Amino acid sequence: MSRPIRVLVAEDQSAVRAGLVLILRSAPDIEVAGEAADGEQAVALARELRPDLVLMDVQMPRLDGVSATRQVVAEGLADVLVLTTFDLDEYVFGALRAGASGFLLKNTEARQLLEAVRTVARGEGLISPAVTRRLIAEFAAKPTREPTADPAVLDRLTRREREVLSCLGEGLSNADIADRLDMAEATVKTHVSRLLGKLELRSRVQAAVLAQELGI
């Protein structure tokens, strides 16, 4: 990107927030646009500052991170990268369904945090393959607490787009999908963009959750 990636940091613990800000400011291509101490402030600042990305803690006072994520995504204010202490709690599922572009554990190393911000800013969702496998297992093990998606939505997709959606459900990157389906990576990006539009989804991670819920 020609300009810095503008990030809003939403974290209620001041020490943790300061550490995140310090890490982000160490990268020349990332700019900290603002800081929020709770969910309501995160939404308000996202509306005011229009950052590229919100680094969102899921457990915050006044308005939890899942609800804040839902508002930010619904209004098209920014992409959301969720931070959580636990890799498979209900907060994570809720945040992904709400449209978060990915999630990271709070104990993630600084280098990985910076790369995650860059990845999401490029429009690629972020869930590590190991965590994706566990997510799929979790979906298979128990019914979701929210209504599952209507399989009829798949009728909007071409055969190729369904194949790409299935790959997204496995947490594959564009490069991995290109290798598996024997197509150019640029073509994969086009298919991902089109299927997101047809399914009215904001992120590829949301598409992955849908694929898991539909079992494709």
UniProtKB/TrEMBL annotation:
<dbReference type="Pfam" id="PF00072">
    <property type="entry name" value="Response_reg"/>
</dbReference>
<dbReference type="InterPro" id="IPR001789">
    <property type="entry name" value="Sig_transdc_resp-reg_receiver"/>
</dbReference>
<feature type="modified residue" description="4-aspartylphosphate">
    <location>
        <position position="57"/>
    </location>
</feature>
<keyword id="KW-0597">Phosphoprotein</keyword>
<keyword id="KW-0804">Transcription</keyword>
<dbReference type="InterPro" id="IPR011006">
    <property type="entry name" value="CheY-like_superfamily"/>
</dbReference>
<keyword id="KW-0805">Transcription regulation</keyword>
<feature type="domain" description="HTH luxR-type">
    <location>
        <begin position="150"/>
        <end position="215"/>
    </location>
</feature>
<dbReference type="Pfam" id="PF00196">
    <property type="entry name" value="GerE"/>
</dbReference>
<feature type="domain" description="Response regulatory">
    <location>
        <begin position="6"/>
        <end position="121"/>
    </location>
</feature>
<dbReference type="InterPro" id="IPR058245">
    <property type="entry name" value="NreC/VraR/RcsB-like_REC"/>
</dbReference>
<dbReference type="InterPro" id="IPR016032">
    <property type="entry name" value="Sig_transdc_resp-reg_C-effctor"/>
</dbReference>
<keyword id="KW-0238">DNA-binding</keyword>
<dbReference type="InterPro" id="IPR000792">
    <property type="entry name" value="Tscrpt_reg_LuxR_C"/>
</dbReference>
<dbReference type="InterPro" id="IPR039420">
    <property type="entry name" value="WalR-like"/>
</dbReference>
<protein>
    <submittedName>
        <fullName>Response regulator transcription factor</fullName>
    </submittedName>
</protein>
